[in-house]
Amino acid sequence: MVADPLDASAGVPYEALAELRTVCPVSRTPSGAYFLARRDDVLAATKNIAVFQASFRAAGVVVPAEEQLISEIPEPRHGKIRRIINSAIAQHRISRVEPFVRALCHELLDQIVARGGGDLVADYVTPIPATVIAHLLGVDPADHARFAEWSDIVVQSTYATKNRRADGVDGEGLAGVAPDFTAYLDAMIAERKASADPPDDFVTRLINTEVDGEHLTELGMRTQLAFLLMSGNETTRHLIANLLETVCTDAALFARLRAERELVPTLVEESLRHDPPIHVLMRDCLADITIEGVTIPAGVKVGFGLASANRDERTYGDPDEFRLDRPNAKDHLAFGGGPHVCPGASLARLEGRVALDVFIDRVHEARIDIGYQREPVPVFWANGPRRLPVTLTGAARGTSRPNC
Ligand code: HEM
Description:
Elements: H1 14-23, E1 26-28, E2 34-36, H2 39-47, E3 52-54, H3 77-88, H4 91-94, H5 98-115, E4 117-119, H6 120-125, H7 127-137, H8 144-157, H9 173-177, H10 179-194, H11 202-208, H12 218-233, H13 236-248, H14 251-259, H15 264-274, E5 280-285, E6 289-291, E7 294-296, E8 301-305, H16 306-309, H17 345-362, E9 363-368, E10 389-394
Parallel strand pairs: 2-8
Antiparallel strand pairs: 1-2, 3-5, 4-10, 5-8, 6-7, 9-10
The structure holds protoporphyrin IX containing FE (HEM).
């Protein structure tokens, strides 16, 4: 019996996943769910939206349509809402945020460099994605820190069953879980609607975009704004933390990056392959389907193994090795696939690249604490270190030495 492929509480079980890919590509987990381990099966399943529907909640919990997160919404409504969200986070708009991300990273590193180290997850990584999303949403800078806290509350509530009413409906919804947050979003929406000259931000664009003559309702807008915060935050922070863990535990790699800065985007891609921030996607199976000779019955939960797919030896040679010379590194499934493929991938890549680039600019040497053991984060689908205690030497802003 191999380890539970859904259980990453002690780290993603890569050895067990390799065994599943070889001997049992479609398996049953101890909780009764099914699990897809091979890349081709995972990719095909992400495209099969007639059979597999995203599942964010415990069995039996349903939410009203306007409180469904975009990933859970069936077609054709999903496609319409996705076009509205895409217009808000389109790539040409995202590239404009780079100077903000760069300045934020410098500001955070000012204090860490002056102290000679700290916990990079708490002090550097965590504030970056939440602050960037808050900035894009048009949130007052004084409230940026509250966005990181709200994001944690919302993420931790998505699988909660405690609010379920007897009829299976999520009794409180987002407003019950994070009332300050929903009130804040509602106020932002109301202010922009009332303003003759609203700022050009995510919220205004969500209000103004119509698809097939339809606008999002205020509740629909609030739901998708909250999801943008959650989906862009809990994921990107693990990408940045995984990148920093890699460079802080490999002095030769750190030195090479300082000399060959053009490798940074390649490192980001290989990190997404080697350590995807989401190691598994959960789906509800809506109809019987046979994959690799195994019939998965309607009504069960199915895990799509993204971390397993990314190390599939049918696609990647030496899949467990972290390598910067893979011709097909970008074929990874860290951002999913099919109609729900991540629309925030450009923003995530930009944040990962800039956070690492600024770190290399400012830090000459970083050493992870002796005895460091990776402690995984407590969110079951997420893959990143909870802490990164480092000692470092670096330069004050603007005085970085040339690479040597
Ligand atoms: C490294 C960072 C990120 C990773 C690894 C990631 C990964 C993913 C994955 C795997 C999916 C597919 C979910 C599914 O099929 O059920 C997804 C969907 C999504 N992501 Fe990301 N994401 C990241 C960053 C972001 C950012 C920065 C944003 C936006 C600001 C974002 C917004 C979304 C949204 C809205 C969806 C739902 C799309 C839909 O259902 O049509 N993500 N992401």
